[in-house]
Specification:
405 residues; nucleic acid binding; Nucleotidyltransferase, domain 5; nucleotide binding; Ribonuclease D; alpha/beta; 19 helices; 52% helix; 3 domains; RNase_D-like; DNA polymerase, domain 1
Length: 405
């Protein structure tokens, strides 16, 4: 196919109607979105890019109040929709516009199944087309209007290569007997409903160098993060843009007086932050608590099952010589063990992962949770990469970690 980086800006209802005439004739659409998430607490879709028949349409939802004309295209099972990291884009489009999706392909999932060295869009484009995508606009503010030409060119290139890349990946997936697994994951991603996240919008465990703080300092960091998160919600601003992590760390380490806090954070926020810094806390946070995640409050029996499930996952990873990102997460394993399914249909009904995973991982996972042997159930699984390549990649990762440490 011809790769075209030019674009057609669709920023009015009439322009959308004209674009839909061509889009309705398409059998393949390559889709991407640009969001405000780097700047706002509550992200929203600011652009929808659709590449079709060599034409790049950049649709501006901030200028067009009604996008329902796109809905039949996304839901049409006869039109293939190609994404890179479909989960992120599809959830955002469901959240903001209520779209539903059928017949999806994801080049990021495919890149992992095909064991490419990296799964980023820029790497995949360079791997298949020897083209280096610019990252200059990666953190651009997509809410600002008018958009600049360099922003639009950047947005157009995100979809320009997806169709040709997918066609090559599809052929390789079929050749390596991985296509049905990939297709099932795509279907699961397309069907997964958007659920608004509740609770804190941050993780103490991910705060920079949190293990190097004392237990009391960690408690203070947590209180400052809660304060910042609430302020970010009120003004709809990305949390790190309210107060950056370095300044919060400095405040906890140096214990500044109220005047210095006001100098650093402003009059109102400085006074509140000072109060949080000098408050008495009876519940310091030990390093061991950082590894705990929401939902991992397991009783003794559940904890044993969780350990068995993690050992099962490690066994599958070694047999298939694959990355952990393609296997059930801790969160998914916890949902399963807490629900305690007794057969595959009960496991399938949980809608935790794809039908392929239920059929191919389910029997051995249920056996592991019941304390039974399961190695014989894993013998028919297809290896993702050669043993030599798997060992080499693990070694490279370990060496890199040692250098970073």
């Amino acid at each position: 196919m011809q790769i075209n980086s030019n674009y057609i800006l669709v920023d009015s209802p009439k322009a959308l109607d004209l674009a839909l005439i061509n889009l309705r004739q398409s059998k393949i659409l390559s889709i991407d979105t640009e969001s405000s998430g780097y700047y706002t607490y509550y992200p929203r879709v600011c652009l929808i890019q659709i590449n079709s028949n060599g034409k790049n349409y950049i649709i501006d939802p901030l200028k067009i109040p009604d996008l329902k004309g796109l809905s039949p295209l996304f839901a049409d099972p006869n039109i293939l929709k190609i994404f890179h990291s479909a989960q992120d884009d599809i959830k955002a489009l469901k959240r903001d516009f209520g779209f539903q999706f059928k017949n999806v392909a994801d080049t990021m999932i495919s890149s992992r199944l095909l064991s490419l060295e990296q799964s980023s869009l820029s790497f995949v484009v360079e791997f298949y087309h020897q083209v280096t995508l610019s990252k200059v606009e990666q953190k651009s503010n997509w809410e600002i209007r008018p958009l600049q030409k360099q922003q639009l060119r950047y947005a157009a290139l995100d979809t320009a290569y997806l169709e040709s890349i997918w066609l090559k990946m599809e052929e390789e997936l079929k050749r390596r007997n991985l296509y049905e697994e990939a297709k099932s994951d795509f279907e699961f991603t397309a069907a997964e409903e958007y659920v608004a996240k509740e609770g804190e919008g941050f993780s103490l465990a991910k705060f920079p160098d949190i293990v190097n703080f004392t237990p009391l300092e960690r408690r203070k960091i947590l209180e400052l993060l809660r304060y910042r998160d609430e302020k970010a919600k009120k003004i709809n601003k990305a949390s790190f843009r309210v107060f950056n992590n370095d300044k919060l760390s400095q405040a906890v380490k140096e214990q500044p007086n109220e005047g210095k806090c006001i100098e650093w954070f402003g009059k109102k926020d400085g006074s509140e932050i000072y109060k949080l810094l000098v408050s008495e806390y009876n519940d310091p946070i030990e390093a061991s608590e950082l590894s705990k995640r929401h939902g991992e409050d397991l009783n003794e029996e559940e904890d044993k099952k969780f350990e068995s499930a993690k050992k099962w996952r490690l066994r599958v990873m070694r047999i298939r010589r694959m990355e952990h990102s393609l296997l059930p997460s801790n969160k998914q394993l916890i949902i399963i063990l807490k629900s305690n399914p007794s057969n595959l249909e009960e496991l399938r009904a949980l809608k935790v992962f794809s039908d392929w995973k239920v059929d191919n991982y389910g029997p051995s996972l249920l056996a592991a949770l019941s304390g039974l042997h399961y190695d014989s159930m894993l013998n028919r699984l297809v290896a993702i990469r050669s043993k030599e390549a798997f060992v080499a990649k693990r070694r490279k990762k370990q060496n890199f970690s040692q250098k970073e440490g």
